[in-house]
Amino acid sequence: MKEIKKPNFIIIGAMKAATTSLYTYLKQHPDVFMTHIKEPMFFNNFKTENNYIVKGRKGSKISTLKAYYALFDNAENEIALGEASPTYIYTKNCATLIQEHLPEVKIIAILRQPVKRAYSNYLHAKRAGREPINSFIDAINSEEERIEKNWSPLYHYKEKGFYFRQLSRYFKEFKKEQIKVILFEDIIDNPQKITKEVFKFLGVDSSFAPNTSKKANVAGKPKGVAGWIVMKLRKNNLIPNIEFSKYLPEFIVSYILKTIYSKPEKIDNKTINNLTNKYYKEDIKQLEKLIERDLSNWL
Q1: How confident is the model over 55-84, as a mean pLDDT?
Q2: What pLDDT, in 10s, does the model give residues 193-246?
Q3: Which CATH architecture does the domain made up of 9-220+263-298 adopt?
Q4: Domain ranges of the chain
Q5: Alpha carbon of 185 to those of 112, 113, 188, 268: distances in Å?
Q6: How far apart, in whole angstroms, are the C-alpha atoms of residue 132 and residue 200?
């Protein structure tokens, strides 16, 4: 009888907090197997009670255990088998479902200052041609109405920043030793150090040094006709998910990206401080105690 291979670790998010970068780093390790689909989002679709309206998204969903476990069929002698679905941290029933089917799995969460994360999320939606509102503040103010109308979590910019509420579900379902929490600024400032910690957490050779020189999935703003065309193609899923850096020199990839995307305007500190104090102050204080980290710089 064929052995069923299952993941023994999952990166649960958060979205726009360097989960793609960590996925890329881990994938380089000879003892780590990552699914070819970076975001299977299986536990979002399996027994889900929500019927989200996903704007501009097409394609079949992985919604059975058989299809999910099949993602790991190509694993050979790797010690750590994993996947990265940033939506797991936010969707309410994911922690319970993961515990039910993978009780020994290790959980990795990356957290980013909630307002900065929300803004990056907004830019991501704009770049993909899925956000019609041209002001971040207006989008935040429209969020409650959108949630009431059952819009996709892609647009839950503010709500996805309440990490204490979200992580508490995982600390309730799993042992503390099974959960590793990383801060976005740490992995950006010192990716080698953080990746080494993750390798140790996963029980693989922590002396392996992956290439961490490239930032993955950085938000940008469509520029000119070329940017507009790419945006429309992305919106309708007409661009294949290919790592072009594998086939083209880095300077060519960089030139192409600069041609179709411009650097977005940075969110100002006043807006960050105002929104943080208005929405997240208490949640951050509770989070500090939960993960035993000083988050005063977020405030």
Answers
A1: 84
A2: 999 999 999 999 999 999 998 765 555 555 555 554 544 444 444 454 445 555
A3: 3-Layer(aba) Sandwich (3.40)
A4: 9-220+263-298
A5: 7, 9, 5, 18
A6: 43
Amino acid of residue 2: K
- What whole-number percentage of the chain has pLDDT above 70? 79
Helix axes 19-27, 191-202, angle to 10 degrees: 70
Tokens encoding 181: 């929490």
DSSP strand pairing (221-222 vs 261-262): antiparallel
CA–CA separation, 163 and 111 (whole Å): 8
Report residue 53 as tokens: 């309206």
Other CB atoms within 10 Å distance of the CB of residue 71: 21
- Work out the number of other CB atoms within 10 angstroms of the CB of residue 73: 10
First to last CA, the chain: 55
Q: Which residue has the tokens 């943080």?
A: 276
Q: What is the pTM of this model?
A: 0.84
Q: Match 């790797």 to its residue by tokens.
A: 78
* DSSP code per residue over 227-268: HHHHHHHHHTT-S----GGGTS-HHHHHHHHHHHEEPPPPPP
Q: Which two tokens stand for residue 45?
A: 């679709």
Q: In the chain, count of helices (H) and strands (E)?
A: 14, 7
